[in-house]
Amino acid sequence: MRSTVKVLVVDDSALTRQLLTRALSLDPAIEVVGTARTGVEAIEKTHSLAPDVVTLDIEMPELTGLEALPHIIRTSPARVLMLSSIDDPDTTYTALERGATDFIVKPASGFATSLTELSEVLIKKIKTAYRVRPERRLFARHDELRRVAGIPGPSGGGPPDHIVAIAASTGGPPALEAVILGLDTGLGASYMIVQHLPKGFTGSLARRLGRLAPIPVVEAEDGMPVERDTAYIAPHGSHMTVAGRRTMRMSLQDAPPLHGVRPAADPLFMSVAEHVGKDSVGVVLTGMGSDGAAGLRSIMEAGGTTIVQDEDSSVVWGMPGAAVRMGVASRVVPIDDVASEIRRAVRG
Fold it and tell me: d(Cα 256, Cα 236) in Å, to the nearest integer?
């Protein structure tokens, strides 16, 4: 690994380009090798400057970031970090599906934050993206995703026999799409999902997954009854747990962040292990950090099943790798096999 990470900054706003360049200049391990103001310039400079990471705005003249993204992914090894608006999270998920490694939220009023705060977030995202091998940028089954989009799901019906708890972070939305496609109705299971996301993006993720899944997908609310054949997304800012067994309900808690995030997967996994025991299934997908590993240990000790995404299909093998190193992954499989492993575990 070279001493510096080469970054190309792309945005149609000169002020934004200047702010991003200044924020990145605070870390000597990052070198801004150039800037671009349009999608066309972004493609040209990606080829001429060979950056390791491209920060790519979505709304730009001539060619939008969403239109330029596939060209950059197909013709260079650059990892792409999207500059996304909280007002349009659906476009952000489309960018992740097309190969963007991650995104940073661009507030509606611009980067109205301190340079230090912006620098901390941006530098962390840049370095995480740099660690992603270029061949891992695309792994979602896009043809299948488009084919089934829009299929409605049935409503839930009574308390579940099994709980499947799923955790994901960097690279997670496309991985979740691949998993959600493979779920069957009639398994008698409920699905609890913790995906590390900024504020304002979990509701959109629930709607997006709901358009693909054969079951309803909703954003969880405190006190909501847990029903079979339904998936629940943990909302930003609260840890999600379950309570009870015969009349199971959702519980959202404002406890301090864990692993630097809230919601975190470990509280969910531990509560599922406590209340469901051997009928629990824990799943850890691609993501940075170690969230979920301790929770998988609780599920394994309770007699449940633990499933972990393998390294080759993960965008970042941080969370799955931590689970494997802890010895709490009973099954380690590619992303396309995760759904079938879930079905097998639920069916016994």
Answer: 13
Verify that 158 and 126 share a domain, yes or no. Answer: no
Q: How many CA atoms lie within 13 A of 27 on its CB side?
A: 25
More confident position, 78 or 118: 78
Domain boundary among 105, 136, 167: 136
Domain encompassing residue 204:
144-347
- Length reported for the chain: 348
Question: Which one of 57, 279, 291, 337 is the catalytic residue?
Answer: 291
Domain-ending residue, one of 111, 136, 161:
136
Q: Give pTM, 2 decimals.
A: 0.85
Residue with tokens 């909302």: 235
Q: How far apart are CA 169 and CA 185, in angstroms?
A: 26
The catalytic position among 85, 169, 204, 271 is 169
pLDDT at 212: 86
Both 187 and 231 in one domain: the answer is yes
DSSP per-residue codes, 36-61:
ESSHHHHHHHHHHH--SEEEEESS-S
Task: Name the pairing type of β-strands 217-219 and 280-284.
Answer: unpaired
What pLDDT digit, counting tens, does each position of 75-111 carry? 999 999 999 877 788 889 999 988 999 999 876 555 6
| Structural domains in the chain (count) | 2
Active-site annotation holder among 11, 85, 196, 313:
196
- Listed in sequence order, the residues at least 6 apart from 340 whose beta carbon sits closer than 8 Å to its beta carbon are 182
User: Is there a single domain that holds both residue 29 and residue 78?
Assistant: yes
Is 291 an annotated catalytic residue? Answer: yes
Same domain, 155 and 128: no
Each residue of 132-171: pLDDT tens digit?
A: 988 877 654 444 443 444 434 444 568 899 999 999 999 9
Instruction: Using alpha carbons, select from 111, 1, 122, 134 the residue that is nearest to residue 55.
Output: 122
Q: Is there a single domain that holds both residue 82 and residue 185?
A: no
